[in-house]
Amino acid sequence: MPRPSLKDQRSEQILDAYLTCVSRFGLEGATQEHVATEAGVKRPILRHYLGNKDQMTGALISHVVDRFARATTALQDALEPTGTPADLIDLLFDKSVPNDPRVMLAYQSLVTSVANHPSMRQPLVNSLEQFFEVIEAVLKRAFPNAPADQIRAVSQGISATYVNLDSLTPLNPPEVWRAELKQAATILAASLEATA
Amino acid sequence: MPRPSLKDQRSEQILDAYLTCVSRFGLEGATQEHVATEAGVKRPILRHYLGNKDQMTGALISHVVDRFARATTALQDALEPTGTPADLIDLLFDKSVPNDPRVMLAYQSLVTSVANHPSMRQPLVNSLEQFFEVIEAVLKRAFPNAPADQIRAVSQGISATYVNLDSLTPLNPPEVWRAELKQAATILAASLEATA
DNA sequence: AAGTATATTGTCAATAATGACAATTAATAA
DNA sequence: TTATTAATTGTCATTATTGACAATATACTT
User: pTM score, two decimals?
Assistant: First the structure.
């Protein structure tokens, strides 16, 4: 008999707006007013669904980590069990894939603020390691004879080129940068052929 | 006859504290109170030397861009006229070199906030291009026959691995990550040998 | 010692951001 | 239609942040 609850949808809507604001203003620069405006609701709504600012922030951190982890899982699912390094790089760098740079930008903002919120350090590290592992798995399958440390290095390099690209999106980087970073990732992957 | 001016020293001291705060709280999260505390001065001092918040922020942006550009120039000076790619990578990745990750973190925070301060976009892009060019110059000297687009790609890749390393410092990344990213950069540079 | 320009601090008003809660509106079932 | 529960909005007190300026302290010169 009660009015149907919108808690899930509204929470998601608010957290997504919050994520957008964090990607633009940083974690400590995203005010409730910013979030409310971005979400198209009045400020008290935020409190109603997510509690006070501390609780909101806690929820946001989980949300960002979760979004990043989900993107990692989606990447993994798209590549298992037979994806090649070329497939991986296409997924990471092709604009056709609907990538959401906000997530990576918000992620970066969290990393920046980790000293002020020490408890989020471990989740951030873990989700990043998870991302590395997906890359590693693809490389290991393609180059089973390559030494482990070299695979790790190439994985880190590919990850770095990808993260870097997303980090630069606010600058409206010229399209060539994307192509160049993609080529760098390709070169890294190709380096494993020699050792196989 | 007047009391000697401390404008230069104090301005530098304040801007450096401001830079620290931006690297920790982001551009929109660094309050005057934060900066004053970090600099070890009272808040009105900030206004006295740098004006109101807008002017302070303007000065900070110039300061960060300048610090980054100076670091680039220092890198260039250390490598001209005979530095090799191996020298470059040592300078970028060796902990012995007194690198200041705050500069890169603050730089990243500026990039994040560029939508809110559009005028800083071009200086940021320019200083980044300058950084690329130093890397390119070293590679071009070592591999004069390598195709230009490949040099660009490798430069972007090396830059990305370096930027990525600094971006992760708040996470206290394990030392292996540094070694792995350095190795990735080395692999990228080595890839140019094949084409020469 | 006195004058002078600057450094430094103290203080208060104005604005922004947050916390908290009351009041109203809306949707559903009986 | 009415009861019920949640959504949504309005509002005010508290705190945080900034702007502005007066007042004092300090170092140097003559």
Answer: 0.95
